Target: Alginate lyase family protein
Amino acid sequence: MDLKSILAIIVAFFTGKSDQEKAEVAKQIQDTLQEQLKPQPPKVVPQPPVTPEPKPEPPKAPTGQISGLTTNPNRLNSNKEAAKKGDKLMQKAINNVIKLGQDWLNQKVSYVTEKTKLIPGVKDSLHYFMSMAPYWHLIKGEWVRKDAQANGISEAIGDVTRLQKQLMPAVENLSKAYVATDDQNLKDKFAKRVIDICTSFFLDSKTGMMPSFIYANAVPGQVRVESAVEGRPFIIVANWLLFLQDSKFYTEAFRKGMQKWFADLAYWLEFSATGKKANEETVGNIASIYEAQLVAFNAFGGNMDYAAKRRAKAIARLFHDIAPDGGLPEEKKRVKAFMYHCKAIDAIYLCARIYNSLGQGIWYEERSGKMPLLEVIRYMLPYFMGKKRFNNSEKITYSYFVQPLRTALLVYEKYLTQQEKKDINTILEKNDPIRDGAPDLFDEPFLDWR
Model:
């Protein structure tokens, strides 16, 4: 029945009414019915509030204090005592440490904001560390990788040099000299220089670096997990800063600023888009460096529980890249396989030393009845002794390997055979400068060869 029929029936009830009255009533009824017959919007049913997906919490405020990440303060103290008691070689090493510290009092350290060249395609980002992936070349408009063929772009930018050859050695050598000397005037000079350098490099609003490696080891147009591992030198910086904590120049404001900076970098390493990718996809020496950075920066930043929580995953990642015979399959693929084996083992041992310093040792963890961190040393010994080679073109160098060998002699003394110990000592006698009183002897953890 349509609307007009309904109206006719209703109007019939008003017989006897004047036409005007009927028209008025009919109009009211029509308006009412039209309003009722309009399409009604769907009824809104109240919904419970949506709980957003939890996001990772930013780093908490520091809750503890550490005294070293890769260096044992007790070793430094005992070595100083040995020198005072007449140990000639240690005296020579300590004198070399102090002299090197004095040299660094006057050497220039530049900052990331001083670069005049940026990575291709990036503008107005002077406060970010920048470097190009060394083996990528622009060929006919496309970036192409050529292993072992450096492109030279990072050298032109200069941030790698600033970090590896200026900031890191400056902080390490000045801080080491601060510990070595008993001259308070020199101590103050060494400490003040370190604090001034780090304030400018990290904290100053005009010259400071952002706590991120988004533009590190870059290839234009790619998100690269390798970007997350350029901070290895910062592990050394953080380690040696801890030895200045008793200096009057190591103020509370400086401590809080540096802890926050490293906590922010640790957060970026794990939760940025690049960091998340690196957290799951890195392999080989890159994975080991990533793990070492992650635990070191969290610890320095005040997250004292992180090492215990991360330990199992770190072990799994380190072991994943070590074959049952101790070889490193990812590094065998490289043109410079020997060098990359050395770099990988150095990174593995660096990571293990940090975990050990934080009370979460991993040296003796086993897999199928063997200790993979010992097996990598055993695997490489024939290559160092010249009995095996990965190829016939690569020059053999030992710079990355001497410290892992020193450490292996200490950590695995009960597990190495007499022949293995003899081989390691033969290698170190020829290639390790600390045996002639080099500065690194001062913080050397293994002295039995003497």
